[in-house]
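User: Sequence in, structure out. Go.
Assistant: Echoing your sequence, followed by the structure tokens.
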Amino acid sequence: MMRSSGRGDADFNTSHDAASGTFQLMARHDGTGGGGRFPLVDAVRGLAAVFVLVAHVSFWTGTSALDVPGAILARGDSGVAIFFVLSAMLLLRPWITGRTAARTYWIHRLIRIYPAYLLGLAGVLLVAALLPGQTGGLGSPGKVVAHLFFLQGYTDDQYQAFTQTWSLTTEITFYLLVPVIGIALGRLARCRDRVVFGTLAGIGVLGVLLQTLSTVWSRSGNTWGAGVLGRSVLGHLAWYAAGAAIALLVSGPRDRWERVAARPAACAAVALCVLLVTATPLGGPVDLHLPTPAQAAFKETAYAVFAGLLVLAAMGRPRGDVTTAVVDTGLARWAGDMSYAVFLWQVLALQVLYVLTGQPVLTGSFWLVLIAVSAVTLLVASASVYLVEQPLLRWAHRRWPTGRPTAPTSPSTPVAR
């Protein structure tokens, strides 16, 4: 479920050698870990938020179940995988290079995630209190407390307008593990490449097996325990392993990394092909029906490959194409800034729209709903970003500066499927 100007622990910059057409990475000091700024990473973060918004709208309007294009729209849930890969790549990198401090890391993570989250939760609780008949109401005190502490992913009792935040439970768990994982990866990086990436591949395979086990368990009737496993860090190890592999690549020898970053179009093209394949029956159902174990394994693997390749594609900036304009106009950075708030508010906007219009769920015009929800979400998200998130982050970086090169911490906050 993921993950900023004054918004993270670092910035990424790229330069393009016009003569040779190769990509060069430049670091600039600005936070807590080790690296430079890859501007297209912000664009990918924004794209992931759009993917998830499209998936939610396609489900609420019933479009996802209608035809082949609907199935493709439903695979916008792959935005979750993108956010998880980004989390691993951005947050592990400074720990791998030994250029961060635990106290600063915890403070920056808390301020990056929690204030905006509380604002979104307050909106959900307000609507639930005002419209209990249409939303299910506030529920028990335990339900509220679980959401206050990001525990909703471990329960089956979630607010309809905040169901996507199960992924924050997963991400918060990952954040707690980042220092340990990062240090371990730093030591692993001293080994031969075959050992390093073989180990990560093995971890990815383990994650796919656990996701498959979750599906088998669900089909046997135990939906709670199976759901917790499927939503957990363990269940999505493949996605995190993909991000860790990229973090190790970026932290390694420049020549090796540049060979990968010099082919962004190829990475993006293959990623798109993989995503399209997941829209076939191989990727499982596009509604709430359970997949077969084989479908679950395929989808988990395919999303890891898709998200990993898309993030790889964001590591370079080709000259003379649309991506240059996206970066130079600030659109990429704006998309990254907005992504977390868009994630937090999009389902609430959907819920309020359907309640106010009396439109039954699983019906409606996909395009009209998408336009209306996007407009409302962007409006509220802008207020969250410019009035809450960025001022607090600027204050946090002044109050707890790091003075070291850093890895970005703009939330690669995942969003729900």
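User: And one key feature?
Assistant: The longest strand covers residues 13-16.
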